[in-house]
Amino acid sequence: MSNFVFSFRGHSDRTVGADEESAWAAWFQQIGGSVADFGHRVGHVSALGSASNARDVLAGYVVIEAADLAAAVSIASGCPGLRHGGGVEVGEATDA
In what order do the strands lie in the sheet with 56-66? Predict the structure, then answer.
């Protein structure tokens, strides 16, 4: 098993409604066995370099355990943010 970081992306001026909050809670309950670090939501953001031109900003992160990148992407595909205009980046955490 390897660790993978899910980087949640969203519009900087967006607020999450009650229905989406419930969907996030249900999703985290569903994937809870895979979560190595529940991470945090991210508040104020300042982007540098090429990220400063991006429309979406870092909204939060979580670290999960999965067999490989394909399995991690499969888990990430259930993210409620994807149904509400957000995005998820999935990256393998390495020691190198």
Answer: 35-41, 56-66, 2-11, 87-92
**Cα–Cα dist 34/49, whole Å:** 33
Alpha helix (H) ranges present in the chain? Answer: 18-31, 69-76
Instruction: Decide: 80 and 62 in contact? Cβ < 8 Å.
Output: no
Q: Which pair of structure tokens corresponds to residue 50? A: 């090429």
Quick check: 10 and 87 in contact, CB under 8 A? yes
pLDDT, tens only, 27-82:
999 999 999 999 998 888 887 887 777 778 899 999 999 999 999 999 999 999 99
CA distance 44 to 22: 23
The identity of residue 61, as a single letter, is Y
In angstroms, the CA 48 to CA 68 distance is 30
As a residue count, the chain comes to 96
